[in-house]
């Protein structure tokens, strides 16, 4: 006896399938648009200058980290923070690069000779010029001392510069309304003979030191080479050539 067979009709109308699929797709679109709209609304609220952190409740979605990062960036921009890679900042706004104020000392209580005796070489001349720039009452005396000290070196350019400053300072002192007659002493004339002789001596000494250094390098004597670089650096420093002096001192180390 044959068994009864029950046949099920699994086919559905095309309209019902398409309708259910359309409904599911619409639901997915609504679900996907909801976080984006929420994030855009929160972002707009966070990026307004009138918003505050206490007024915001961030959504608990998977994109919380990226959303909070973008909101933090908006907050920093509205707080006026300068980004690390911003290079178009006006250098005048930086207090570290601000120029020093040119102050003036009117009533100095300084023994100029004793002060100058505590320095030697180029530093003594530089300190005397510094006093001349900031102390009008000691300007002429400081420049005269600097002029006498610079003639013990090979620095011809500094000699001419100090002599020019001394001439201007003496002229200003003579033209002052309360000038003292005894103070109207003319500066010494520019010693052109000393300038020419010093330049020749400096050139001859430079050639000698350079030749000695080449001989030391040929003999491969390390201590002599080091001493030769030091001597050459001392000569450049005596001539006022600080760049070449630094190079020679660096090679000697």
From TrEMBL:
The keyword Cytoplasm applies. Residues 191-253 form the 26S proteasome regulatory subunit Rpn7 N-terminal domain. Residues 1-46 are annotated as: Disordered. InterPro entries: Rpn7/CSN1 (IPR019585), Rpn7_N (IPR045135). Keywords: Cytoplasm, Nucleus, Signalosome. It is found in: Cytoplasm; Nucleus. Residues 32-41 have a biased composition (Low complexity). It comes from the Eukaryota. GO terms for cellular component: COP9 signalosome; cytoplasm. Pfam families: RPN7. The keyword Nucleus applies. This is GPS1 isoform 10.
């Amino acid at each position: 006896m044959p068994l009864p067979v029950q046949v099920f009709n699994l086919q559905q109308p095309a309209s019902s399938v398409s309708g259910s699929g359309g409904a599911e797709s619409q639901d997915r679109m609504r679900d996907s648009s909801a976080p984006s709209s929420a994030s855009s609304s929160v972002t707009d609220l966070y990026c307004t200058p009138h918003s505050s952190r206490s007024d915001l409740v961030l959504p608990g979605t998977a994109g919380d980290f990226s959303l909070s990062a973008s909101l933090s960036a908006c907050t920093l921009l509205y707080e006026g923070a300068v980004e690390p890679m911003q290079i178009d900042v006006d250098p005048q706004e930086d207090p570290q690069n601000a120029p020093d104020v040119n102050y003036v000392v009117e009533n100095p209580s300084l023994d100029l000779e004793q002060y100058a005796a505590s320095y030697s070489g180029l530093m003594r001349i530089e300190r005397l010029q510094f006093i001349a720039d900031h102390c009008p009452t000691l300007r002429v005396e400081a420049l005269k001392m600097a002029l006498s000290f610079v003639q013990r070196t090979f620095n011809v350019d500094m000699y001419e510069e100090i002599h020019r400053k001394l001439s201007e300072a003496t002229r200003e002192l003579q033209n002052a309304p309360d000038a003292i007659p005894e103070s109207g002493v003319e500066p010494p004339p520019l010693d052109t003979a000393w300038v020419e002789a010093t330049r020749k001596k400096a050139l001859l000494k430079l050639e000698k030191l350079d030749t000695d250094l080449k001989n030391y390098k040929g003999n491969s004597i390390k201590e002599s080479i080091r001493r030769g670089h030091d001597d050459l650096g001392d000569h450049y420093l005596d001539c006022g050539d600080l760049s070449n002096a630094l190079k020679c001192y660096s090679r000697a180390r």
